[in-house]
Amino acid sequence: LSLRASMWADISTYSSRVLPSELLRRPPSVCGGAGGQSVSISRSSQSMALSGTGGGFFFMPSISSAPNGKEVMQKLNERLASYLEKVHTLELANSSLEQNIREWYKQQTPMPRDLSEYERTVASLQDQFDASNQHNTQIVLQIDNAKLAADDYKMKYDSELSMRQAVEADTVGLKKLLDELTFAKNTLDKQVEELKEERLSLKKNHTEVRRWHGTTINVEVDAVPGVDLKSAIAEIRAQYEEAVERNQQETEFDDLNQQVSSSTEELQSGRSQLAELKRTIQSLEIEVQSLISLKQALEGSLHETEQHNYTQLSELQNLINQLEAELAQLKGDASRQDEEYKALLDLKTRHELEIQEYRRLLDMEDKSPPCMTWGCWALNSKVAVSGPTRDHKRVTQPARVSNEDQKKINVSSQIRALYL
Q: Among its keywords, does the record have Coiled coil (predicted)?
């Protein structure tokens, strides 16, 4: 519309400067068309004629009556040629702009970003996270097993400790018994020595008694009465029985010594087992402490890994959100530029149609007879309105004009008013 208005302004200015006064003083006849209807306007002081079809108007001067009509027409053609050249320049600029838009679209079109590297990174981090979780689970199971084993060893330690305390108590009792038996043994040894001496003396006496019984000696002496043999034998028998009892006690003492030695050996083995259990408990405690420290280190590493993964996931999510926002903005820009491109293309199409219409009007002007004047043009317009069966009278029929055509007629009237 702006191009059309500028064109009409250029034609009006040029016509006011170039057309001679004779043409301006001639009574013109103006006809215009809109929507297939013909409208005739006649003024006595009008010096220009408007002709058009499809809602367009064009000033047609009377060429045959003007002495320099060809020159005027040539200048108008030159003017139109310059206008067409401008249109061609605008078309070239439009094509260049379209090419720039295509290149910009090629450069600025959001290509699908290659997120495979991020996906691989996330997948590797997820695998590491799963491996860490699995390793942590295994460590927790090992810790639980170690705790159960430690509990078992603790129970064994408690049982062995109670057994050790019982054995130590028995050992203390056996030591007391050993001291008593040692004292009794010493006493019995002394008694045995005494009994041996008594035995030797008794044996000696017995030998003498047998010798006395084996020989007969008749000696009459006046002496003290002899020893009572029965009482001596009874005494000897009592001594022998006492010696037998002592021997039995010695035998029992030997058995007790053997029991004490076996108990001592058992005590030594118990002590060695207790020392071994202590070493085992210490090694297990050290292992438990190392496992606890390893668990704490792994928990700290797991926490750091989770924090690092959470930070990376947050950064990736922010990047994805930013890319989605940029993609939405690019889509909006693309849609807006597409609409602008369509609007420019529509404007170009309308300009091309207008140019074709102007060319058609110029061709019609070139093909019109040279004797055609303003009166003939008006007469033809009236004939077009009245029809072929009516006389050629200056009678016009009212035509139905749309609002757009009425606006164009008003514009043409204002343009014609410039030449009054």
A: yes
Answer whether 122's CB lies under 8 Å from 316's CB.
Answer: yes
Find out whether 29 and 377 touch, Cβ atoms under 8 Å.
yes
Contacts of 226 (CB under 8 A, 6+ apart): none
pLDDT of residue 368: 60
Instruction: Give the tens place of pLDDT for each residue, 288-320.
Output: 888 888 888 888 888 888 888 888 888 888 888
Largest CA distance in the chain: 229
By the 8 A CB rule, do 263 and 170 touch? yes
Q: What angle do CA 39, 10, 40 make, to 5 degrees?
A: 10
Per-residue pLDDT, 63: 41
Q: Which helix (H) or strand (E) holds 33?
A: strand 29-34
Q: Enumerate long-range contacts of 246-255, CB under 8 Å, 24 or more apart.
A: 246/188, 246/191, 246/192, 246/195, 249/184, 249/188, 250/185, 250/188, 250/192, 253/181, 253/184, 253/185, 253/188
Alpha-carbon distance of 11 to 76, in angstroms, equals 8
The helix or strand, by DSSP H or E, that contains position 42, with its residue range, turns out to be strand 37-42
d(CA 416, CA 112): 61
- Dihedral through CA 372, CA 378, CA 379, CA 382, nearest 10? 150
CB neighbours of 161 closer than 8 A, spacing ≥ 6? 274
Task: Using a cut of 0.70, tell me whether the model's pTM lies above it.
Answer: no
Domain ranges of the chain: 2-107+372-417, 128-213+229-312
Sorting pLDDT into bands at 50, 70 and 90, what band is 420? very low
Quick one: pLDDT at residue 53? 39
DSSP-derived letter for residue 66 is S
Q: Are strands 29-34 and 37-42 parallel, antiparallel or unpaired?
A: antiparallel
